[in-house]
Amino acid sequence: MAKRDYYEVLGVERGSSEADLKKAYRRLAMKHHPDRNPDSKESEEAFKEANEAYEVLSDASKRAAYDQYGHAGVDPSMGGGGQGFGGQNFSDIFGDVFSDFFGGGRGGNGRGGAQRGSDLRYTLELNLEEAVRGTTVSIRVPTLVNCKPCDGSGAKKGSAPITCPTCGGIGQVRMQQGFFSVQQTCPRCHGQGKIISDPCDSCHGEGRVEEYKTLSVKVPSGVDTGDRIRLSGEGEAGMQGGPTGDLYVVINVREHAIFQRDGKHLYCEVPISFTDAALGGELEVPTLDGRVKLKIPEGTQTGKQFRLRGKGVAPVRGGGAGDLMCRVAVETPVNLDRRQRELLEEFRTSLEGNESHSPKANGWFEGVKRFFGDL
After folding, report:
1. Which pLDDT score is estimated for 342?
2. What average pLDDT score do residues 96-108 get?
3. Is residue 326 part of an annotated ligand binding site?
4. N or C terminus of the chain with fewer C-beta within 10 Å?
5. How far apart are CA 253 and CA 289, in angstroms?
6. Mind listing the pLDDT tens digit for each residue in 272-297?
7. Cα(146)–Cα(244) distance, integer angstroms
8. Could you tell me the pTM of the whole model?
9. Distances from the Cα of 27 to the Cαs of 23, 33, 51, 84, 271, in angstroms?
10. What is the pLDDT of residue 109?
11. What are the start and end residues of each CXXCXGXG motif repeat (predicted)?
12. Helix 60-69 / helix 41-57 crossing angle, nearest 10 deg
């Protein structure tokens, strides 16, 4: 069956930028990755097809050859120099695609030699109290670690990787198509410069195995959503003796039932009765340190904001604690009995004709009259 156009596979135009190619490939890889679709042959084929298309179009030389000669310019079976999907397994591709999410990469330049392990990202959910006061939590993180039986070499104990006979250990090969010469990753060793003739039984030649690590994370006081804690050397193990990547713990603070946070300040809404608003009084309001008394002056209106200094959050990067802003919301009484209604009727009657009791309403009605030209 004839191969589909690589641009069509990724769903992009021929003049698309490298960023557009990566974005399109990432979307398809996430959708069709075998780990997400373990029993789907169609997803597996779509994943391979997308990987092959991106492997060609993301390389400037291969893309130029493909644009000029089509599949013949990059496919060895058609006389070209392309690698296609080749011998890469799903775990290799997964790392290539998604390592960008973790702010790192496999390191190296595609040639043989030690490569740094990928950085990892872990989202840590905290409640507001934990974020403000700080805490220590244990997390369980999936990662890749060096295979112990082969000590990360990928070769069975007692043997060792050998120099790739195809590229001579360089990791790159040059293919000639007419007058066009393309240098690309060696299809046999995949850029490593070495091949494993007798792979380790534990890691099957990868040199790394999947493992869960339990780590203790000390969260400093004052962190907020989006803050990152770096755990150096707790990411994926490097390849061929390369250094280990880092783990970035990203903080996400859950919504609170009472308080809303904005930087170092906290906000809350305090409901009060209309009698307390009219006559004044003293209320008990919550803070993260306990209850405090809040004095309400007589004639308080809805929306009035009271500031409790120093009752906010001390920022993680230093500086004094913020404030707690309490916004008053005057509640209208409901479910009145007969006597209560009578009292309110008497109260309403007593207010009639005296505009001094409702200064805002008086000003508002005057504005309405001016708007309609009644004044």
Report:
1. 95
2. 37
3. no
4. N
5. 19
6. 998 999 999 999 999 999 999 999 99
7. 10
8. 0.60
9. 6, 10, 12, 20, 47
10. 40
11. 147-154, 164-171, 186-193, 200-207
12. 100
Phi, psi of 343 (to 5 degrees): -65, -40
- Between the CA of residue 19 and those of 5, 25, 29, 284, 320, what are the distances in Å? 19, 10, 15, 56, 43
Q: What is the pLDDT of residue 178?
A: 56
Provide the token pair at 205: 């030649």
Per the structure block, which two tokens stand in for 13?
């135009």
Give all domains of the chain, ordered by start, each with its CATH number. Answer: 1-76 (1.10.287.110), 112-154+205-254 (2.60.260.20), 259-331 (2.60.260.20), 338-374 (no CATH)
Q: Which residue reads 């405090």 in tokens?
A: 292
Task: Please tell me the predicted confidence (pLDDT) of residue 365.
Answer: 66
Angle at CA of residue 52, ends 48 and 55, nearest 5°: 135
With beta carbons less than 8 A apart as the criterion, state whether 73 and 130 touch.
Answer: no
Spatial distance between the Cα atoms of 17 and 253, rounded to a whole number of angstroms:
36
Q: Which residues are registered as beta bridge partners of 290?
A: 287
Report how far residue 262's alpha carbon sits from residue 225's, in angstroms, rounded to the nearest whole number.
11
Q: Which two tokens stand for residue 44?
A: 């597996």
Residue 268 assigned to a binding site:
no
Q: Which residues lie closer than 8 Å to 329 by C-beta, 6 or more apart?
A: 269, 270, 271, 272, 302, 303
Q: What is the pLDDT of residue 181?
A: 67
Please give the residue that has the higher pLDDT: either 106 or 163: 163
The model's confidence at residue 125, banded by pLDDT at 50, 70 and 90, is very high
CB 152 within 8 A of CB 237: yes
